[in-house]
Every structure is written in structure tokens, then in C-alpha cells.
Fold this protein.
Amino acid sequence: MQAKIVAWLSGAVLVAALGAGGALAVSRHRPAPEPVPQEKVATAKVQRRTLSTVKKLDGSVGFGSARPLSGHTAATVTWLPVAGATIVRGKQLFRADDKPVILFYGGMPLYRPITGLNLVGRDVGIVAKNLRALGYRIGHQPATARDGEGVLTADLIKAVKRWQEDNELPPTGTIAVGDIEVQSGAVRVDSVAVQPGAAADTELMTVTAIRKVITVSAELDAAAGLTRGEHVTVTLPDDRTVKARILSVGRTLASPAGGVADGAPKLTVLVTVDKPADLAKLDSADVKVNVAGKVAKNVLATPVEALVALTEGGYAVQGPDGLIGVTTGMFADGWVQVSGPGLAEGMDVVVAS
């Protein structure tokens, strides 16, 4: 009996020991907690840059303002071009009494018949320059003609006759008022005002330039300082930015559509892109014209997110050795001009993330 009790106690002690050992083993192999990750601080380098402010103006792509084109011959219209047609030098604008009325380039209309040997004038000069541009031999022009003028020489009259024959006109050597129409360059027909059968000596159509332009209606303060030929950029609807320049700045303030109550009078500014292909797929669209404003050249700058507002006022940046007080200058494109003791190009500064 005593031996059984001893055996039972020995077994109990062993079980207890095994149980304790098992508990210790479990405790000894429990995985240690993972270390807390340290947050990485975002930094940027102090850079030397040229900063510039940009004035953004609303613009629209098109062919510019349409202007009326009238005929000047006492005849009947027998043919008209369709809207959208492009007409270049030497081609017919319309037909009157079934004869072509041809487009020439120049700065003034023909106001008298071009006839009579040795006739002198700027209108003769327009005829001479256009016939030469079309490939006709006009001979020598006398040096006595003033700048822009021409002389109706025998050779020029022969050239006129050859041109008339090529256009199925009577080869008289005389150009009557209304036989040609003079424009500053090639034109695009914007709209047609009459039908065949109408009188040819009235407004027949409206035309525009053939090159697309960007029209900006700018208030006087926004247009201040803009000059013809100034380089700008244009942001297109697909967010591409292309190079452009100012073609003209209007001098007449015009009220916006709807009257003065709808806004301040505005100036019309025309802008042309450097590469016409940039607008090839756009007949009309709203764009942004970006005009450079103030410029700060070769200055130290940091991202705006690097600025730390101080409780006592002003700003600082967080450098490798602590806060550095800075004086701010121009803000542009997410950067700010900074200066201050201890600030150097290439230094890392903390930026807010």
C-alpha cells in the first residue's frame, strides 16, 4: 500500500514537472514583437533657378474676325465659292457675267482702270508685283518710280495680255475696276451673302485669314504691357503647351457681347502659334494664353512645401542642423525664392508630405 502511494506521488510530480516544462517551452518560443517602423522624412534640395510669374488669359481658336468682301463690277454674279473654301493669289473669287474675278495681294484696292502706256502709281505696282509672283515676265521697271509704285511699261502690258489669255479673258492689256479684287493675302470664305443672279457690285461674302489664330478678349489691365511679336505659350485642351507669339494688340475698347453691364470693355489680342500643325485638328476650342510676368533670375529657391511658418511671424526651412530663418521673395510654379544666413545651393530641406 505504501509502495503504491509512493508510485502515485512520483507520477504526479513527473506530470507536474512535464506540465511546467511544457509551459516554459511555450513561453520561451513565443515570437518577439516587430519593431515600429520609423517614418521617412521627405526632403528636397535648395536650387538656383529662374522664377517667373505667369498671367493666364482666356482665348479661343478660330480664323479671326470675318470681314466683308464686295465686288466692284457692274455685272451679274454667276458663281460663288462655298463657305470654308480657301482662295489664293491668281485664283477666282467669284464669277461675274461668267468671267472670273481674280484675287491679287496688296494693300489697296484698284480704284481706276490700269490702262495707258507709262501710267504710274501704287495700283500699277500691285499689278506688277502680282504678275511677277504668278510667273509672268514683266520686264524692267524704271528706277524713276517711287517705293511701292509701278510703271505701266510695254513689257508689263504684254504680261497683262498673257495673264488675261490664261484666264480666258479678252487680251486687251487693260484691267478695269472690278476685274480683280485686292486683299492682304489668301482668304478663307467664312460665309456667302448672296446667290447667283445677284448684282456683283455689292457685298458678296465674308472672308477671314487662312491661318488659325487665337483671339483673346482682355481687359485693359490684363492687356497692359502686351506687345506685338512678344513670345507667349498656349495651353491646349489636351494640356499640351505650345510656343506662340502675339500677332496684334487692338487699340479700340469694345463692350462684351450683351452690353457694358456684362463686364468691362475689352481689347482684342490676336495670338499665332509658331507651328500651325499644333492647331491642325482644332477648328474651334477654348485655350489658355500664358504671358510671362515678373522674372527673378538665378535665385535660391525651395518648394513652397518646405516653408515653416514661425509663431513670431515669418518663415524658416528645416535644414540638416535645424531651422533656418529665411526671407521669401517671388512665388511661382510651386517654388519660392528664399534667402538667409546659412542657406546654400544643394542643401537638403524638409518638405511637408
Observations:
- The two ends are 81 Å apart (CA to CA).
- The chain has three domains: 43-51+295-350, 54-63+212-293, 70-209.
